[in-house]
Amino acid sequence: MSRKSHRQGPVDFLTLVLPGGVPVAIETARAARLRGDDNGGPGMADETKDAWDATQWHEVKKGETLWKIAEQYYGDGNLYMRIFEANKDSVKDPNLIRIGQKLRIP
Q: What is the rounded distance in angstroms from the CA atom of residue 74 to the CA atom of residue 85?
């Protein structure tokens, strides 16, 4: 699989070429933020936002813990405090997360 990025007007895409030569264009998170569609509110009028921010979002499902989520994203549950620190505005105790809660995954 090969990949290349290109710019098409104001929208950024990453193009993956799958085995067999099938190209797949994927809109980048940066482009979604520029459009104002990033789970984080309005468009990127604030120039202090990092254009290369790789933050992902995770919606908590039944039975999940920060440990399990850290294992899923980082391969190591011991890193659950990274997720906790990134979400201190909405998570006051790392042992108390709610189903449906959206968490930043740095």
A: 15
Express each pLDDT in 10-29 by its tens digit.
445 566 676 777 676 665 66
Element (H, E) at 14: strand 11-18
How far is the first Cα of the chain from the last one, in angstroms, to the nearest whole number? 26
- What does the block give as tokens for 3? 């990949």
Write the DSSP assignment of 75-87 as a string of letters: S-GGGHHHHHHHT
Which residues, other chains included, contact 14 with Cβ-Cβ below 8 Å and sequence gap of 6+?
A: 3, 4, 5, 25, 26, 28
What is the C-alpha separation between 9 and 58, in angstroms, rounded?
29
pLDDT at 40: 46
Query: What residues have CB less than 8 Å from 48, skipping those under 6 apart?
Result: none
Count other Cβ atoms within 10 Å, centred on residue 3.
11
Asked if 70 contacts 24 with a C-beta cutoff of 8 angstroms, the reply is no
